[in-house]
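Sanity check record (used in CI):
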Amino acid sequence: MRMRLMLLGGGNALGQALIRLGAEEDIGFLAPRPPEQGWDVPSLTQLLDDTRPDAVINLAYYFDWFQAEETSTERLASQERAVERLAELCQHHQMLLLQPSSYRVFDGSRATAYSEKEEQVPLGLRGQALWRMEQSVRAVCPRHVLLRFGWLMDESPGGLLDRFLRRAEKDDALFAADDRRGNPTPVDDAARVLIAVLKQLDCQAPLWGTYHYGGHEATTTLALGQALLGEARVYRPTLLDSVTPQAHAARPDAADEPQHAVLACKKIFHTFGIKPRAWRAGLPALLDRYYRHV
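Expected output for dTDP-4-dehydrorhamnose reductase:
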């Protein structure tokens, strides 16, 4: 890798997966420790003025965007300002910016898969904030890759998987929507995609723009929950036997979570040659890592 890579958010689950996979391929990252209050406009300005990498992978707010049960308006507003400043710095110093985004920028009213060209009408606070961040990156920093991920799954404490499995240990019943669809995406697979994109950008390929990636085989949250329980029982035989189906409209997060969140991944395949991997194949490693740290 000829480019010097700056990774913001190397301590979170996706950052750690990226560092692990990079080490296997002899790809290193500058991964500075964030200041106590987290990355903000002044600290990002100082960091990039001092280090001048060739590319920035912005996973600084990964947990809030992809794993947290809820995130405050104030935190998201601060992150929006930081992302806009990051885009300005990347443009000023002629750095590449690799910025994650999410299926949450869509409202979920489309029953067929969303392509990159579909209109974005986000539902909740997170989706709206991510949509505005996408817009500011496009407007300010032409040399960017915006990568929208499907349902990201990782082992982080307090994350989606952790909350689900803890309920499966303690609750009498678990409910999941049988009419809500998306692309489960294990964090290791997401890291594989980021590495593949970086390799091609390292070859000076001007492949800027917005791309979708999600694990192969769209499914429902109900089927995903059943698959997770099946794998997790290897470690916790006393987990609940099954997940109870419930309508999307009856779920407590129905106002914020798109009912249909399936992403079409043709563009990333035709541009970068990245094929979606079956999400089920990634569950054993994910659950193993989770139960080793729980």
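The CA atoms of residues 141 and 282 lie 34 Å apart. If this sentence no longer matches the regenerated tokens, the check is flagged for review.
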